[in-house]
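Final report, results section. Input specification for complex C-07:
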Amino acid sequence: MERDWVLAQMKPWLEDPLAKKLGQNLKYDMHVFGNYQIQVQGVDHDTLLESYVLESHLSHSMDNLAQRHLGIKTIQYEEVCGKGVHQIGFDQVDLKTATEYAAEDADITLRLHHHLWPQLERMPSLRYVYEQIEMPAMRVLGIMESNGITIDREKLAIQGQEVGKKLLVLEKEIHQLAGQPFNIQSPKQIGEILFGQLQLPIVKKTPSGAPSTDEEVLQKLAEDFPLPARILDYRSLAKLMSTYIEKLPRMINPKTGRVHTNYAQAVAVTGRLASNDPNLQNIPVRTEEGRRIREAFVPQAGYRLVSADYSQIELRIMAHIAEDENLLAAFKAGKDIHQATAAEIFAIPLEQVSSEQRRYAKVINFGLIYGMSAYGLAGNLKIERAAAQQYIAKYFERYPGVAQYMERTRQEARELGYVQTVFGRRLWLAEIQSPNGPRRQAAERAAINAPMQGTAADLIKMAMISVDAKLQEKAMRSQMIMQVHDELVFEVADDEIDDLTQLVRDAMLNVAQLAVPLEVDIGVGENWDEAH
DNA sequence: CATGTCACG
DNA sequence: ACGTACGTGACATGA
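Structure output:
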């Protein structure tokens, strides 16, 4: 077969670590060659990652990059293969056209590299992020994608039966309460029933002006009426059913028997990963019903799942960046940080903090990470704006370093047009100078959040690189299989559990020396839920 | 294809 | 007077 002959010719070069390669999104190409038992070596540069590190907020598609940096309009895939129902496979394209398209692809990639790499090369911090974080992370992500995870389809099938029955019962009840059948999955029809026919009060409107029927609204209406509560129950079960219970089994690769997500490395502007097809970073956990989905994430025989997650990573990073003495001291003393915050805000001893006060402090701590306003905090705590303002003032009084950090970050963002993480990753803020108030304020909140979210992303990527190196070095059978922002999941051979947990904890804790101690929680189980 | 909603950190 | 927590992906509906 011609393909086999071509691959055989290319294999020695592709696998030669001294033969340097560059490409656009090489993680993908490496998978393609991997499917033909070719382990690509000598990967030197990737223009997707070059562009991402330089300008994470812009598009990194080759079309866009060519237009933006080279002023070239590339041949569109649709021009070659057509689109929609008329589209043909690339193998159906005549050789001359296919050659021109493919050759342009290679040509543009090289020219983009010649344009982007010099820019990276002269900026030490960005070069560090590219060379020491993103490029090595690409390889690790490719391995994790190939590893995949086993999904217990029988377990999901049983759950599907149960949830399906509950949905039917709820549907009947809801139609009864509404006095007529309607599509419960249609916000529009829910609105017509609740606000038209039943004349319930409109709580808030969607951006387009229609009465909202979201969770917060239905929760509020459920205080006085029976129907909204049922719709909420129906919605949450329908979500579980369509997005997880029915979807995950369909995503099992017939060749490997496992589910292989794609980790998008150049999508999130803050430096985080994104996961898609399927998204394994939004598997339910917050409710009992939802958590059962995680019971279907299982190890192969003779293995267990191990989950390792950073505790309070973003608040620790905030303490580090802000250099706030009080916050640093709380972390160094190993305090429950929300309790400690409550004690400060309410000016009471630690032991006297009530669970309600701790809950308030927790919301405030989250708000800080998100660049909250008094309005936002008030909305979240359902209190008066003035009261929210009081809490914020009290917090900043007790943690003046944090207050200074917030102001410093806004100012820096305004002056430079970007903010950066501890390791030098940059996030550009296009609207930080906008005359449009709300848009500018949104940019300010993003500016405050990005260094914390982004530094956390840097840290866990570096930890992944370090863990992967140790797994290779020790030739362990255990594998890293998932990343969920502050959590790493491993499929661990039974006799490697002690070794691996120690190795992972060590790698995650010592990936960098911050002014605060890091903390890692590790669990082991027969499924993802148990490991948590 | 936009909109609304909701799953996660 | 206004509209506000940060970052993602996926589903169903309905134009």
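The CA atoms of residues 320 and 515 of chain A lie 5 Å apart. Chain A has 23 helices and twelve strands. This concludes the modelling results for the funded period.
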